[in-house]
Automatic annotation (TrEMBL):
Domain ABC transmembrane type-1: 68-278
Protein name: ABC transporter permease
A single cellular component GO annotation: plasma membrane
Family classification: Belongs to the binding-protein-dependent transport system permease family.
Transmembrane segments: 72-93, 105-125, 154-176, 207-227, 260-281
Membrane topology classification: Multi-pass membrane protein
Keywords from the UniProt entry: Cell membrane, Membrane, Transmembrane, Transmembrane helix, Transport
CDD domains reported for this sequence: TM_PBP2 (cd06261)
Pfam families, per database record: BPD_transp_1
Predominant place of localization: membrane
Annotated PROSITE patterns: ABC_TM1
Cited SUPFAM superfamilies: MetI-like (SSF161098)
Length: 291
């Protein structure tokens, strides 16, 4: 009887969390999946079952493929650079030196700024002829550019903004993890003749793997949920050169009011995120040392 009471007590404790998770995560996911195989309701016309028609339309949609390709480039550029930069900054500010608190504040400040404010700040930086970036290149004698108006530079301009904003956020996790590593481990490695690079590669980096796995998953999610900067800075242009998957979903769902097709794109986006996250956990978990 006591075991049943304990089990009931345990279920009652997790019931609020399970209810919220089901109401705001699992139920919307199921409803989105159902909406993706139905038509979009129009006025008094209810949705009807269309099977995989929305997915066939998606496969023939060139903007979807362009957005997917843009998002892959965006993710492959932002994730490794922002994570590596975050680790470098954490290693720098983990040491004791004059002005360390100011350095930590400077690295972390972009994280606390609202994303819309960040987009507007960088929009000023990228303004042709008058922006800060064009002023600098003009001072160096180089030609001015329309950084957000040219296909060759627009997406990379957004990538630079994302790296600038996210690196400080990831740095905090690495800094906390570095402070949890006992100094005796590095001292023991030094006594065995290990140099700074060997100590970092053989001691520090393996102990940071749980944090690295967490940061990589968050960086992946951030790379595929970016929409604020695109809306403010480029609106997906020029010629869909900066259209990312979530922005395409936003356009389809709230500009063209095609909720069924937007649900189809959302299912594909969630599937991509789930598969990549599962692969990361599968390949990195064996290299992760939990303490």
């Amino acid at each position: 009887m006591s075991k049943r009471l304990n089990a009931l007590y345990g279920w009652l404790l997790i019931l609020p969390a399970v209810s919220l998770l089901a109401a705001f995560t699992h139920l919307p996911a199921v409803m989105t999946l159902l909406a993706s195989v139905h038509s979009t309701p129009r006025g008094t016309r209810p949705p009807h079952f269309v099977g995989l028609d929305n997915y066939r339309d998606m496969m023939a949609d060139p903007i979807f493929w362009q957005s997917l390709w843009n998002n892959l480039i965006y993710a492959l550029a932002t994730i490794p650079v922002s994570v590596a930069l975050a680790l470098t900054m954490a290693l720098l500010v983990n040491r004791s030196f004059p002005g360390r608190s100011l350095a930590r504040l400077a690295f972390f400040t972009p994280t606390v700024l609202p994303m819309i404010a960040v987009a507007n700040i960088w929009l000023f930086f990228y303004t042709p002829d008058y922006g800060l970036l064009d002023r600098l290149v003009g001072f160096l004698g180089m030609a001015h550019h329309n950084w957000l108006g040219e296909r060759g530079t627009a997406l990379w301009a957004l990538i630079a903004v994302a790296i600038w904003k996210e690196s400080g956020f990831f740095m905090i996790f690495y800094l906390a993890a570095l402070q949890q590593i006992p100094a005796t481990l590095r001292e023991a490695a030094a006594l065995e003749g290990a140099g700074p690079w060997t100590c970092f590669r053989r001691v520090t980096l393996p102990l940071l793997m749980p944090t690295t796995l967490f940061v990589l998953i968050n960086a992946l999610i951030n790379a595929f949920r970016m929409v604020d900067h695109v809306v403010v800075m480029t609106r997906g242009g020029p010629d869909n050169a900066t259209s990312l998957l979530l922005f395409h979903i936003f356009e389809v769902g709230f500009r063209f009011w095609d909720s069924a097709y937007a649900a189809t794109l959302t299912v594909v986006l969630v599937t991509i995120l789930s598969l990549v996250a599962a692969l990361k956990f599968h390949f990195l978990d064996s290299r992760t040392h939990y303490r």
